[in-house]
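Researcher: Next sequence.
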Amino acid sequence: MEIKSRLRLFFRSRPAVLEISALMSILAIAVLIRLLPVRWGALLSEFDPWMQFRQAEFIVERGWSGFREYFSWIDTKRWYPYGQFVSRTFYPGLAFALAFIYLSLSSIGLHLDLLELAVVFPVLMSVVAVLAVYFLGKEVGGKSAGLLAAFALAVSSANISRTHAGWFDDESISIPLMLLSFLMYIYAIKKGRELKHVVVYSVLSGFFLGYVATCWGAHRFPFMFIQLITLLLSFIGRYRREILVSYSITFGLSSAIATSVPKLGGVAYVYDLTIASGLMVLGLLVVFELSSNLASKFLRSFVPRITTVALLASIGIVASLPTTKFLSTLLPGIRSELSILISVAENQVSTWATVFSDLGFFLVFVPAGIFYMLREGTDESIFISALTVLGIYFAASMVRLAALAAPFVAISSGYAISKVFDSLGGVIASRAEKRKGERVPIEYAIVTPILVVLLLALPLSPSFLVGRSFPRLSPIDQAYVPPTVVQSTLPVAASIPDWVNALSWMRDNLPEKAVVAAWWDYGYWITMMGNKTTLADNSTTNSTQIGVIALAFMSPPEKAYQILRQHGVTHVVIFVTHEVSFYAGKYLPRLLGYGDEGKWVWMLKIANQEAQRLGVQPMNERDYYDPTKPLTEGATEKFWKETLLGQLIPYKPSTQDGNVVHYYEEPKVNGFKLVYSSSPPYRSYAYVYVYELTG
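Model: Next structure:
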């Protein structure tokens, strides 16, 4: 009877029911949008998820002992002939999480397909992220702000791009855990919190933050943000003993976990900026604690000086110690020196268009949200405001970091929108009070539902309803695309099975001991789906070996043959994109630029770096490419006739009525025999060609 009466009381509380119903609806929207890619089958998206899956598969095949064996695993099917020490190259957290879930379910009799579990894992983690944002928003601005923030993240294109079905990569688990860590830290430092609760929340924050370090190279951001915001709160007069206790536990536990990750250097990671600066912050907090207990005004006068000197020293360390890759995020201008890094589209500097398309129209409300939060002036508001500003800065610095900013943009915009609705509701209520017995003015009665409908409908409208001029504003468009291998890397929502067919052919027809040279973009696919040994892959850990491949592709066939043979290569794979368009009554066959015919310029730059290392005369890039022309038309005759890649690409350039066109010519290159074509000429948009080294 007691349970029944409690349930009756619960359902009488309509606000609570509405809140839970709204939150469940938002979670359902988030899940349904992110499951859209499953229409094309249970496959992983992009490239890196395949290597994450390979690690989980290694553990699962060996059972519970696989967690131990992982740390001594040298993967000999990759980076031939050296192989790769996996635990020193990759973060184990994501693979460990999937393997743990799979083995745990298997131990109780639930046997799932590991690949299918990997496909839906990001979707499940997105639910955690949306819930975390809801509670963060609720801390800042109440229930309405929390619900609006959750909805904003549920339909965020930037978040969807890293949590849709098949995106089994670091961000899918790291961002939710980062948000949980921030949430627990906010709970821990809340004024008036009992010590036992401070300890519990701090332990949870430290664990979540530490696990982020086992998954994600960008863990330095949440680690150092906790340090920064703790210092900031202390310097503006918000210091209290709970902050010292919470920071000590969070920092200590997370650092202990981070120093257990082989990729981070183990115990030596203590000397890294990430931990070293945290130790300095801990020292500063101890100074604050001592100053708060000093009775002498004379002694207190020295505390600001001590903290100022320590702060300046911290800034000096921050300015001098970051690695080049980390520093390139802070200072994107230096990224042009990192050819391999910037050759990846998602590592390039963002434009205003990409920032807006990734973060959506909610970005418009962010300035108002930050204004309202800073005016509120609570610890939570300062916390989220600082996160939002830094997140947007990093999103502008690098395309892929839009996913980092998305949760904080959602919270800030949700708070701003809730304030707008509160103000509008107040106006309506006051007008109704003044005009008792009168109807609410039509402008208010109409404006409110219109705002609500637009808020819900605009982000969810597919581009075919709002026009193709804004194709990425819709999260449905962001999610409703096939896995990358199914679309053969082309930006179309359709199945182009050339890569799937080629990888299947390689798996079934190439010799077991075949060694394949291809540009590093396709290495994971060839290893995982093609089950063949590769010379290089997407981990890009051996820049010298990548340089060797680039040099081979940019060298004359005779020299390229010698380079490849020296490295044990038996087969070469190239990828070409091509279409036949109909324009002004004529058929125009042209290269599209999404394959090696568009990536070879980066190969040339990297080949020159390798040539310098070997003391070989570097190539003059202007001899191979005219930068005043479009990429697919700028290749010179020297590229087409004097490089291995130019001769292996079957579609050769010619001029037709003043237009550059590319017609198919059967490739005949000494030492290289074409043994497989994924499609006949002019029958597809993507073509995978496999050449065998002969003689």
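Model: Residues 316-322, 338-343, 464-472 have pLDDT under 50 and may be disordered. The longest helix spans residues 402-434.
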